Predict the 3D structure of the following.
Amino acid sequence: MRPAPIAVALDAPDLETAAHWASLVTPHVTTVKVGLELYLRYGPDVIASVRGASGVRVFLDLKLHDIPNTVAGAARAVARLKPAILTVHAAGGPAMIRAAVEAVPNTQIAAVTLLTSLSEADLERVGIDGPSEDAVRRLSALAVAAGAQALVCSPREVAAVRAEVGPGITLITPGVRPAGAASQDQARVATPEQALADGADLLVIGRPITGSADPGATAAGIAAALRRVSAATGHQV
Ligand SMILES: O=c1ccn([C@@H]2O[C@H](COP(=O)(O)O)[C@@H](O)[C@H]2O)c(=O)[nH]1
């Protein structure tokens, strides 16, 4: 069975747990994601640990956000780890995004639009007026014009972003929750089936998998659900 387009967020308190989760899910998913918790605690060595013998794709979610020169330097610093994907914040602006793209030509730069943990009320509080979809579309267009090959948005906005940027850009959606699962600190969520049907290319899923009693079986179950959507809609997984 082909692995499903899921990036499992390995937000673990220690390296052994992260590597264990990675070994359980890698038969079923294409990608594992290393975020700030693991990278700041263990540094670059974490990448080899979670990649393991399987050589699974690693998504390095550092959400870089600084002046262009600093972001370019940071991106160059992790290039030798060969992450498949590296995140920057779209709000860093076009020059910063372009600096990251030029610094790591062999890694996909993914621009994070609006964090999926922000509700419409939160967005208003931080000065983003109007529906989240409008801001996400605007940031997506800006990021793609600056050379970003991938975008991170909530599954609620993925159809609108696809309409905005067309077919060639990889759309990555955190904020994915199987039906009935708790949202936790995520605000703009949808099910894996809905995210895929609406055009997402890679679904980021963390706690619903890693917090389950059997992460391997849970990942396999979600992967099977995505294959059913793919068979029904023709959307390739
Ligand atoms: O807008 C964003 C950008 C990144 N993330 C990251 O995705 C995972 C989600 O984990 P869950 O346990 O499934 O909530 C996490 O590592 C975030 O840092 C995001 O949630 N939203």
Remarks:
- The pocket of LLZGTKA7 is lined by residues 9, 11, 35, 61, 112, 115-116, 152, 174-175, 184, 186, 204-207 (CB under 6 Å).
- The chain has a mean pLDDT of 97.
- Residues 58 and 65 are 20 Å apart (CA to CA).
- The two ends are 11 Å apart (CA to CA).
